[in-house]
Fold each of these.
Amino acid sequence: MGAFTEIDRAGWMSLTASLAIVCSAIVSSAIVTSAMAADGTPPCLRCIEMRLEHPIVVRGPSPHEPDAPVSVIKLPDGSFRGFIAGGTTLAVDGATPVALGEPSQVVLKPGPPGSPSDCGRWLTTVMQGFGVLYGLVHNETRCDDPHGSFKSMSIAQSGNHGLTWNMLGQIITGDEGNIPLPGGEGDCTAADGHDGYWYTYCLRRRDGKNIVARAPIENPAPGKWVKWSGRGWDAPGLAGTGAALTGFVGMSSAYWTDADVMLLLANASSLRLSIAEDKLHFGTVAEPLILYDEDNWQRPAPTELYAYPSMVAEQGFNNIAHHFFLTYTYIPPGADFSRRFLIMQEAWIRASATPQYPQVRTALSRWIGSDGGTWTTTGPPISSGHSYAYDVNLGYLMTAAPQQSLGAKLDECFSEQTGVGFLAEAGHCAAAGGERRRPAGYGFRFEQPGTLALYNCISKSDVYFVSNRSDCENRGVHERLLGFALQ
């Protein structure tokens, strides 16, 4: 894990353009053409709908973690345990997946000097085996090498719900040997393919490509993992050459049990969801799950950073149904890696019988600061020196321009000094007296069935806030109608 090198970033950015393809020619015909049916037929890409609720700050700020996708399990007493990695992996318990607030326990430390994990062990996925837990572990060595670290994957086993782990050995290594360059294969997560195999999706550092390997669930020990070679599952997990998946579809995996398909998330100038029926040929949903400006790993930066996403099922692990939790690492604008936050959002996914427009909607929420000022945002309400409590849902914005009506693209304007945030038409924050922080999303320019009006209001103390009511809740007067949000 850790900060990406120039080679990593180049690999990511060079493949971003492919994510704009709505229905790739290589995606299976079932995904492209069929709708959700009682027999479990997977949905067409355009038939998928998703809804995200407001972001919840679970942990942070931290200089170390989360530095990997988060995995969560449900414990026998009904509580939950999250595994949060940053070179050293922690276990953190809580009553719900979004309340991982109890004191942390160290469950994995870096390996001994000279080992493949002497820079750290990041637990990236916890998997339910037959009577035991298995953990997928990202390893790094040569972290002080000016050329960059070397990555590999191992597997571990736990018989006490993840509080201690027995390292079984390496399962995924690169095919280039121990060259004096950033290399190896890592950053993997795994999901149950519901066909007797676990599938792990990885980043190959030498070319920035995604690859996939699998092992039988009944015995995922070292030596049992094989990579997809392009011809079959016949390339050894250790030093074998895997075939690159088409496009950059990411490494953050989950299995959607309702549709019987594999899901992958990728950070590619917005958070993107891809789907495959055969675990190999992925198509990307056209509308992003989260809309943001860029993936800038040179911190601090003027833009925010979303990283290491994961999908957590309602009852833990990553076999998701219609309701799940989206998690990710978040770094606010202007902040460096010393201010990492773990964010979770409740999410819903379903397949309709026909193509849907829009496909993705995300909650537009108003928060109240400790001094009474408000912040209206679709993102996490994080600003140094200010604290916020959730106030109200103002509707849902779209992450792409609507096709059936004129859209209104909205920006979030914010003042670090006052801690007040409001909305404006894209490009008009400065004219409204604020600084642009991020894209909020898209509303409708004109009223549609099932929409709510969004008004920019000016309070009696001459401060902007956003309301659904033209009377501005009797707290001020409305300056302009911004557009209409989905209910």
Note: Helices lie at 6-14, 29-33.
Amino acid sequence: MPVDINCDMGESFGAYQIGADDAVLPHITSANIACGFHGGDPTVMRNTVAAASKLGVAIGAHPSLPDLVGFGRRAMQVTAQEVYDLMIYQIGALLGFTRAAGVALRHVKPHGALYNMAAAQQPLADAIARAVRDVDSELILFGLAGNYMLTAAKRAGIRAASEVFADRNYLKDGALVPRSRPDAMVLDVEEAVRRAIRMVREGVVADVEGNDMPIRADTICVHGDGPHAPEIARALREGFGAAGIQVLAISAPNQ
């Protein structure tokens, strides 16, 4: 099976530069573009859409909780209705830029705390899936492998992509290791590639206790704000090629 490589990007705003988007873009097939609530601003959104479109990279919205100071990585007390409204608002913002550029919006991937909260709380996952459907039922929802967003997408009648992470470690229940822990990130590039190939080829990943657990890898994420994002993205693309694994956007016509 082919695999998609996605990256969270367009997270700079105003005078603040976050990530190395230009260095990452040539190696990925899907770009998750921040919509202004955790990063990004209108100009960054427009420029990132243009850069991704120029390279034929599939464009997706990357909505979050309204937490610019905390980069969207702090949990907030929000209702399912509030989450629905936040999703509609942010997806609509990026959709405006894609339409103005004459390109398609292909997918949606929630960011940070919202992503993790929805993976563990069915009402929030359902609200996200309904919002995606109500904006455009052809959009694909990216969700953490084995968790609520994937089943919520099925209930909403939209397509989902099971997402895995090259640069994050997993707990034994399939959740991501919290960023507050020192072992949250996979910092060794070669190790990240080895893990990614196993996830795609064998459908397993080792948790932090060293035990293999099953996992489905439709799309694999590289965090754009990570210190080694360009190196990991390039190494993943090269490693998949050497392993005979086709890299293709999840939204490509034959996927």
Note: The helical segments are 21-24, 42-54, 80-101, 112-120, 122-135, 148-156, 189-201, 229-242.
Amino acid sequence: MALAALLLPTALCVAADPATITFSLDFPDSSPEHYSITVQSDGHAHYESSGKISADSDARDNYQTDFTFTDSTRARIFELAAQAHYFSGKVDSGNKKLAFTGAKKLVYKDGQRSSSADYNFPQQPSVQQLTTLFQSVAATMEFGRRLTYFHRYQKLALDDELKRMEDQAKRSELAELQAVSPVLQEIYEDNSVINVDRARALRIMEMKAPPLGK
């Protein structure tokens, strides 16, 4: 009984540990050169990246931030991971004729399993969808990274950046826009930013996410 009492807190801690999925991409000479997204089964997430601020800039930046996935996206991510058998089988298509689009890696961890897969182009539809989803989230986070930098150091660059962000959001190329709401809110509330950019930041914040594909 005493031993069971001692072991119970440990067992509860293990059971309480959230499952995590990490997607990372490394692509030298691109912007960014590296990024990773880690999402827990409770929706909490961490994003980090490194590389040039933009393709036409020599300024470099290491960026990281925490955010929370919407419930629908979090559920979809873990549903797709289950369909992909938690990345324990063959993931890469093996087609050497396909162009290199970055070294990608998916990692799944929970209290019972730990598995990962490295790939260029996935053969499984579930991993294809998961890759597209994570890349769309990363695109959003990179807008957040650049907007944070430009708002602090180069406000004249905000105009083109916000235009591009709004256009991509309208084309459903971005996901989880709420993750970068803090910097958009800061831009909107900054009287030193031109009104057209403040208005565009507000429009982006008010955009509704498109439904996730099944």
Note: Strands lie at 20-26, 34-40, 44-52, 60-68, 103-109, 114-119.
Amino acid sequence: MGRDPQELEMPFSEGSEGESRSTFGRIAKNVGWVAGSRGFNLTLSVVYLAFTARALGPEKFGVFALILTYAQLIANFVQFQSWKGIIRYGAMHLTSGRHDRLKRLFGFTAALDFGSAIVGALIAILCVPLVGPLLHWNPDEQFAAAAFAGVLLLTTGATPSGILRLCNRFDLAAFCEATGPLIRLAGAIIGWMMGAGPMWFLIVWATAGFTQAAAQWFTAIFINGSRVVLGRSAFKQALRENERLWKFMLQTNISNSVSMFWTQLGTLAVGAVAGPSDAGAFRLAQRLSKGIVRPVQPVTLAVYPELSRLAAEENFKEVRKIVTHATMMASALALAIVLTIAFGGREILHLVAGKRFEFAHTYLFMLAVATAIDLAGFALEPVQNAFGRSWKVLRSKLIAAAVYAFLLVVLLPTAGGRGAAIAAIICSLLIFAQLAYYTAKLLRSGPAAPAVVAHEAQ
């Protein structure tokens, strides 16, 4: 369907950006598009979160947050980070001009997305009767959780998102990503005016997810002209053409799942121990702390394709420059964020959610510290993935996850939600320290590093 990918403006070809455009020039252009998108979406997310919290209050907002978190937790464990695989392997195919391989790669990741989504939906529905009593859900809330999780898991847009980024269409990706927040905003305002309950907001969130995924697929296939080749033989050939694709996909999926482990499991654990109100406050604090640094995330999305290209070209000098500059700027911003929350966190909560949620200030400050640590090291994971060292990222996060689970068991009974926040800080430090060590070792190895990496990957 659509035009041949050879007709597209490819980010690494002479036709799109021109040979004279530098690496930083391409990154700046892509960061501009995605930063604008994320800034717009961030503004909307704060507004619709405010309307939702004010409409529901601490208790009902906690129920809504627990159902939403339950569905997202399962989605993060079963859904693959297909966009990373598309960029990792697609960059090499673009460099070599093998567009036929791109089509098969797209088809493979699309099948993987929807296959895992179906499995995840079944798991979510079957596990609700087991999880519901632990989270104090009544029968209606259990039904809502099963229905919402089943729908949310089927709204996957990882593959089209990767296609748009690989083809340097960050502009189209930005427009697609705006559809979900716009629907949530409209639905939250209507729900606030109606005095609606948690069920209304779950319906709005599910509708937003479906619409955004549909927009991404339509854009990637029909507007951007990227073909997707399906079929058993095409899948087998894709595995032969993309060495260690399965391993990379599994490692990045587990790595992403583990990175969200303390974000989502923490909310559920707080809900089980302290009840829905504290769980809602914990979730609200998480969203606000993550939202503050969300404008920086586009840099990661824009840097990763460039790092993959530089890795394919074995250009270590540019990699060192990008990582050094990005880490210095991110660390300064992280410090500013912690200071802002320390002195103005209570006012932020009052402004966003109202006086009833001011008790979440402690959660907000502690989770902002954890988020700041993640921000300071945001460039470290893309470097490892670009050089095929995703297993290093996975190992770092698995160690941190094991420590987090242990800390939850030890701290929750005595410290409640604060214990979960302390555990999040410790785990963020663990991941940062490990990835910083691996990255420093990789970059110190100089021009000979690609050969070492290739040997390790085998």
Note: DSSP finds 19 helices and no strands in the chain.
